Amino acid sequence: MPRRPPAAARSATEAPHLRLRAYARAAGRHVLLTVPGAGEPVHLLLDGGAAGVVSRGEALHALAADVLRETDGRVDAVVALAGRSAGLARLLEALAAVEVGELWLPWTDDPAHPDAVRSRTRRRRRVRALRRVLLGGADDAPAAEALLHLDKGGTGAEPERVRYLRPGQPPLTLAADVLLWVRGPAGGEEAGEAYEKQFALSVEDSFLAALLAIVPPPPPDQAAPEEGVDPLSEDDAELDEIDADAASLSFPFDAQHQIAFDDARSYVDSQGRKFFQEHYGFDEEGAEPGGWRKIDQDWMGMAAEVALGLGSAPAGGGLALEVQLGKGGPSLVLRPGAAAEAWCPPAAKGAATPLATDYTVAL
Amino acid sequence: MRTPTISRPPFRRLRGYAFDPSLSTQLETAVVNETVFRVRWEENLAPGPVGEYLEVVDFDPPSNCFYAPVDLNAPQVLAQDGLAPSEGNPQFHQQMVYAVAMTTIRNFERALGRWAMWAPFYEEGTRTRWEDQYVPRLRVYPHALREANAYYSPQKKALLFGYFPADPGDAGSHFPGGTVFTCLSHDIVAHETTHALLDGMHQRFMEPTHPDTLAFHEAFADIVALFQHFSFPEVLRHQIAKTRGDLASQSLLGELAQQFGTATGQYGALRSAIGEVDPVTKQWKPAEPDPADYRRVTEPHLRGAILVAAVFDGFLAIYRSRVADLLRIATAGTGVLPAGALHPDLVSRLAGEAAKAAQHVLNMCVRALDYCPPVDITFGDYLRALVTADWDIVRDDDKGYRVAVIEAFRRRGIFPRDVRTLSEDALRWQGPLERCKDFEVLADVLRGYLEKAQYFRTRKEAFLTTQRMQQEINRWINDEMQEPERFTQVTRIVVDPASPLAGLRRRTGGRPKVEVSSVRPARRIGPDGDFMNQVIVTLMQTRDVPDETALDWDGTGTGATYLFRGGAALILDLDRRELRYAIRKGIDSENRLRRQQKYRESRGVPLRAALLGGSHGEPFALLHRGF
């Protein structure tokens, strides 16, 4: 019996266009992208990351069933825009009945790439420092890493091939008038300056460097690689130096200008007043005079905000794909957090949230 | 022997950067970048500085340390016009934020003719005494954050400035990796101070009810920072000479936050009112107004830039009109300047006209705040406010200032929703067609208040008296109003207990709640000597509307609600004992409710709220990151 052409294939062969099937947020951030291939349509299932989303098992299985139906059982690639994560593992597990050709990951997840390993190690250190400040101890590691969306789970089901994509690589040959590019994360020797920029102190990282400044690095025994952590003992020393430099340079003024927090209570200004005691309100809390304007605790609140910023850019950028319909034609850029929820309209009152919403982009 | 009396100096002279430290490292601009701010003299200025309006407390939480407060009354400091500009001296940073913030406050007070007030402090869920609601000083933290950010915290009534390492690339324009202090940027300090001043007048403008609301906050803060550039005479002369009097070409005057822009990896200033540097060619190009931008752009800063560009365009038209005769005189009637440098006298005259035009536009912009609806402001509302405010002061627009502004808005597709034409008459807010007895009574009540307002000795006294006045008006609305139906017809404030309006917040007994959110005295004198005694009363109402987008994953509703507010700014003419204008946003407007709902849906659920739940209460903290 001839196979029924899947819905996506039918629509994709009628006219040169992209088809986006954005799944409801309850399943995560997933989009099924169908593009005209050299022969058959190509199905790419994009995993946009789990920031702000708790994937529900039932929803993931409904998504997998829909993917099975829409693709006739084969997805050319699962594209982990946000990199490796527990959410990705859950997705691949749910896709057990679907044939997955390739798993595309950003090069920054490549275990064999020294720069990627170095960046992950550096990031892990910062997470440890942030964890201590935010959550107060190593026992809360999973919570801190979940907050930062750095929980690196396994990949669950096994695709035929795992590829680590670098900018500029066309990962697939598509139809003559359709171009597919990798636009990020920047990095690698060919990216030159952009690579350096990526690993320099970014806005978020400068904040974490600030945390490091008040939370000294763990003693050597505690700093030993945990199980599953990439062994980088020779790089650790170099990283320690870099971090120490970053921490000292991150102080905005010379030491002569600094009045330590505890000394500030007794500091007397030129008029003989205990200035900070009077104006900062060290001991007041909440709405007490002065207490509501203090920023020492508030700053910790901001750290959580910053962590969210980090979460949206896992491993320093995430995978970015650009699909262009004809040279100079319309293009669609897909990045981590390229949120399905931005495309999924809310359900009308009383109606169930639709599983997915379809969009087409035509030439 | 009698000691001769020495009168109090009008100003305290304080050195600072006209723009930011980056321009002091460029030969061309170094000579003009160091300026002297003339700050109103505060008799009891304490170390900090801590004065009547501001308290600078230099705590650096990321470094876990404090920096000693500067004493601006120290003889060595007074004798040298303050500390010398220095990036490495935290006391100079304190002086800089104080000087710029005080300049900004002064500009507000000059335009409004009354003291600036900070938004009151309320503790959520409790009844705070009036005394404790009063916030005498805005707290300023010059080194609060280690990131490319600075923001006004409405929760803490504080300005928090960050510092960060500059972008390591493009060493040509800045020191790669060097520390950039946002508190040393005139534009950033003026911008954040303006947020605080605006919040002091309109606390509901921070509620994102329309794409224009947050954008308005950003735009207004940029407008004030931009027009303050024109108050630096040396800079003005320098840039007029450089651009040969053409302020529409690239100049420091039309750009904001140079150092922040380049240090965060951009190719020029953070924002420009008249053009931008092409990231590919790195060449500056003038911006062409595109009405489609207003329909398309929603990010608050980018959308706000449309309003800034419109206002700046209006200013340029006014400037050109003011200098046309000078240029004709200077060019024997041709109006075409010969090649080469301009004569210094001509530069001075052009600079003088530019400064006057800028101050006029800035005053117009600030004064218009009194003519804005108290909630859900749009750019179109602001255009109407600008036109009405200026018309109230200057009836005869013989120089065409209002026409210039209207045209600039029109070119950017900014139209008010509810007018038939863009004529000045149609744009002016309207008052009631017939006199209403209730407003005569209200005007009488307010006359006593305005009399007192003339003789307030302190800002605290003004605050407390105003609070009492608000309470009195509230009592009048609830107990003494004679014609409630007429009142509702004019103001769209619902006072009828039988009103069927769903979700409307009510008092015990079912009467709709009306919040008297502000009472503001306004005594103005026009250029023709006309006196105006006005009081602006803003009223607010709230409805709890079911949030139909708040669904569980299975599609069932969560029962959550959101706030829908309506209100009116009533401008009462106390001389004529009448309501001059009722600037309204009806609580009963279903169209406006639908628009707000649509906007809410388009914004989606904020990531932070989805993950952390609740509100951190810092609307500008994330909004300003990288902006």
Oligomer: heterodimer
Helix percent of chain B reads 40-55%
Tell the overall outline of chain B.
Answer: globular
How much of the residues of chain A is beta strand, in percent?
A: 15-25%
Count of helix runs of chain B: 20
Overall pLDDT metric of chain A: 62
Distance between the termini of chain A: 34 Å
Main interface by residue count: A-B, 73 and 73 residues
- Write down the secondary-structure element order of chain A: HEEEHEHEHHEEHHHEHHHEEHE
Strand content of chain B: 15-25%
Unreliable residue runs of chain B: 605-616
The largest sheet of chain A is: 7 strands, mixed
Query: Span between N and C termini of chain B?
Result: 61 Å
Protein structure class of chain A: alpha/beta
- Outline of chain A: elongated
Rg of chain B computed from alpha carbons, rounded to a whole number of angstroms? 25 Å
Provide the spatial order of strands within the biggest beta sheet of chain A. Answer: 6-5-4-3-2-1-11
Features of the shown structure:
heterodimer; A: 363 residues; alpha/beta; 7-stranded mixed beta sheet; 3-stranded antiparallel beta sheet; 35% helix; disordered N terminus; B: 627 residues; alpha+beta; 5-stranded mixed beta sheet; 4-stranded antiparallel beta sheet; 20 helices; 16% strand; globular
Q: Helix and strand layout, with pairings?
A:
The complex is a heterodimer of chains A (363) and B (627).
Chain A: H1 7-14, E1 17-23, E2 30-35, E3 42-47, H2 57-71, E4 74-80, H3 86-94, E5 99-106, H4 114-135, H5 141-148, E6 161-165, E7 178-184, H6 193-199, H7 203-214, H8 233-249, E8 258-260, H9 261-264, H10 275-279, H11 296-311, E9 320-325, E10 331-334, H12 340-343, E11 356-362
Parallel strand pairs in A: 3-4, 4-5, 5-6
Antiparallel strand pairs in A: 1-2, 1-11, 2-3, 7-9, 9-10
Helix pairs in contact in A: 4-5, 4-7, 7-8
Chain B: E1 11-17, H1 27-33, E2 34-40, E3 54-56, E4 59-60, E5 65-67, H2 75-78, H3 90-112, H4 130-133, E6 138-145, E7 150-153, E8 158-165, E9 179-181, H5 186-201, H6 211-228, H7 233-243, E10 255-256, H8 258-263, E11 271-272, E12 275-277, E13 284-286, H9 291-296, H10 300-330, H11 344-367, H12 379-393, H13 401-411, H14 424-427, H15 437-454, H16 459-480, H17 484-491, E14 515-525, E15 531-546, E16 561-573, E17 578-585, H18 590-603, H19 607-612, H20 619-623
Parallel strand pairs in B: 3-6, 6-8
Antiparallel strand pairs in B: 1-2, 4-5, 7-8, 8-9, 10-11, 12-13, 14-15, 15-16, 16-17
Helix pairs in contact in B: 3-5, 3-11, 5-6, 6-10, 6-11, 7-11, 10-11, 10-13, 12-13, 15-16
